[in-house]
Amino acid sequence: RVFDPEGPLGISLLDRRAVLRELPSTIGEKPRPSRYDFMGYVTRLSSTVAYRKLVQDALEGRCDIRPSGLPTSDNVWIDPTAVVHPSVKFRGPCYVGANSRLNAGVTVSGYSSVEENCEIDLGTSLECASILPNTYIAPGLNVRNAVVDGTRFEHLDRKVTVDLGGVD
After folding, report:
1. Which of 25, 35, 104, 109 has the most CB atoms around it within 10 Å of its CB?
2. What residue spans of the chain are helical by DSSP H?
3. ∠ CA(132), CA(138), CA(142), 5° rounding?
4. Longest dimension (CA), the chain
5. Which of 86, 108, 104 is CA-nearest to residue 96?
6. Average predicted confidence (pLDDT) for the chain
7. What per-residue confidence (pLDDT) applies to 135?
């Protein structure tokens, strides 16, 4: 079992060669669990706050996750399939994923990430925000310190989650 300083990570490692070597002598016995202490980067994705921390750490290079896409100036990564209007302003580090569209007047700053297949409409501002895949952000909004997943909006400062979907 794999552990970090906070405890078990819910991961088990198996050395197949060692198991095969010991197989004849261990038939009928319960396997003896061993402990593997991992001292590298770990973040438990148990909340949207933890997800935002992972995004920030990836954009800062504090872990081995690297944004896909082409790096531009000011620590901005843009996937080659993204469509970015020339008037979009970036203050990195930030990331724009595959097949996403950023329309005229959009501003993206402060560790923001726009994941794949998203559209950020006219004049919207993203600051310290994560826009999860397949999400549309309407024109003229100021999305700050939040995670948006489709119609679900979670403001991280206020610890409020709202479903912005229409009423059926």
Report:
1. 109
2. 16-26, 48-60
3. 80
4. 69
5. 108
6. 88
7. 97
